[in-house]
Amino acid sequence: MTLETYSRSFGHGPRQALAIHCSLAHSGAWRGVAEALKDDLTLVAYDLPSHGKSADWDGQGNVHDVATDMGRALLTEPMDIIGHSFGATVGLRLAIENPELVRSLTMIEPVYFAAAVVDDPDRVAAADRNSHGFNAALERGDRMEAARIFNTGWGDGSGWDATPEKLRQYMADRIHFVPASQPFLRDDSAGLLAPGMFDRAAMPVLLMQGATSGDMADAINTSLAKRLPDVTRVSIAGAGHMAPLTHPKPVAEEIRSFLNRAAG
């Protein structure tokens, strides 16, 4: 199923790229990175289901399937894919399922927990201890508190109190997207961990993480790096999980260097 999809275009560079944002954000999150790469890329960014100006997901089926179908419909030619967090996992899936349409893949802290669950369950269990409060808030219907806890763990580090009320409400209104994502992110509903699947993503891959990010980001990137045939890992100094928003220029520089190497 492909929902009505809102997308916007940034830049005027010769390379066509598709950008996929993180949970609880929207396509405008790429503005800073896109501005820094405007001469290199023509960047198409779309809003995920129930985010930004795209249509709302009706709760039927698997939301990761829906998000992936939306992105797949925008791959009108072989393109570079740049994804952040949940969006990076959509990019990973497109690279494995449709490698002929993905020229390169940049993943910024992909939250594909399923790989780390297999490789390093103890690290995952340690991180899981931080999710009890989030789950409890959702169970009692306190969406704002769930959004606060999620933002504290995966936000830009500015603090919930400094987050504008309009943005807090935006995140709270979409917080159900986080548990709805787990069948893919946690349980590998698309079967990407089956033997031979990662070998399909033979294009150059850049795996990025913030130097100040939590242990889970490193565990996931380590798991993915050992499965991907052609991978480069980089760390953004001083950045956390929201590096594309907080450190757009260093993120863009790493992407530019990577694409230049990949083209060579």
Tell me the layout of helices and strands.
Elements: E1 7-10, E2 15-20, H1 31-36, E3 41-46, H2 63-73, E4 79-84, H3 86-97, E5 102-108, H4 113-119, H5 121-128, H6 132-139, H7 143-154, H8 165-173, H9 177-180, H10 182-185, E6 205-210, H11 215-225, E7 231-236, H12 243-246, H13 248-263
Parallel strand pairs: 2-3, 2-4, 4-5, 5-6, 6-7
Antiparallel strand pairs: 1-3
Helix pairs in contact: 2-3, 4-5, 4-11, 6-7, 7-8
Q: Could you explain the architecture of this structure?
A:
The chain has 264 residues and is of the alpha/beta class. It has a single domain (7-120, 182-263), classed as Rossmann fold (3-Layer(aba) Sandwich). The protein has 13 helices and 7 strands. The chain has a 7-stranded mixed beta sheet with strand order 1-3-2-4-5-6-7, sandwiched between helices. α6 (132-139) runs antiparallel to α7 (143-154). The longest helix has 16 residues, at 248-263. The radius of gyration is 17 Å and the shape is globular. The model has no long low-confidence stretch (mean pLDDT 95).
